[in-house]
Amino acid sequence: MSIFKDKICIVTGGASGIGLNLSKQLAGHGAHVIMADINFEQVEKATEALLKNGLKVKAVKLDVTDKFAFKKIIEDTAAEYGKLDYLFNNAGIVIIGEVRDINLDHMTRVLDVNLNGLLYGTYHAYHLMVKQGSGHIINLSSVEGVLPFPLTASYVGTKHAVFGLTESLWVEAAGTGVDLTIICPGYIRTPLLTDSETVNTTSENVLSSYLAILFEKLSAITPDVCAKLILKAVIKKKTIAFVPKIGRLFWWNYRIWPMGYLRMLRFFHRLDRKRLKKLQKR
Question: Could you list the active site residues?
Fold first, then answer.
């Protein structure tokens, strides 16, 4: 019997990508899954398909940057089901471009969704779970939450913050019955990567860059496989999980030789910048 059977789960960003695959797999294990997303039409369509297969899912509209709405969904879920067992803070966005090209509104929007949105969910779920004496919060950071990376500076900053926030709360949670897990996905081909807003570049150019090709060859996995690895980490109550595991190797390499890693990134970024200029002249 799965440990997720009859458990109550909220998954943010549940309409697509990793969130959708997490929702499918949790429901497949017998969990009650509240699939929350700002795109209600898309998440409702996703739940309809799962309901036809007899899975226990529910679609809710949620803008994670609305702290009152996030609190209400957590409270409503606990009131309806009597508890909340798992919160998967998965919702996130990225705006791709160099800082000199993007504007401050771009950066604050990424901050609001990736950090503030996650903070609101974590805060309200944690307080509820402490009162329950049980629960598990899973926060999605990224391999870019432990490594620098060009063209996504605001995203990288938020994911570093998510990592630090969750680590610190894990320490505080000792003796409360509440578990916390940090997930650091690597190169996953999801709408976050392929359909993101770009400034002075395109998704196609980014995905064909030297750095993207390098990381794809070393660590690319599908959203379905990523979700399976995440749930394995949750079952084992891991504090930090890299999916796939090679992300940990990148992290250790950076910790041991930070300037070497930074110089490597700068070298490839310069090559990509030259390549992009040539493409723009065509």
Answer: 155
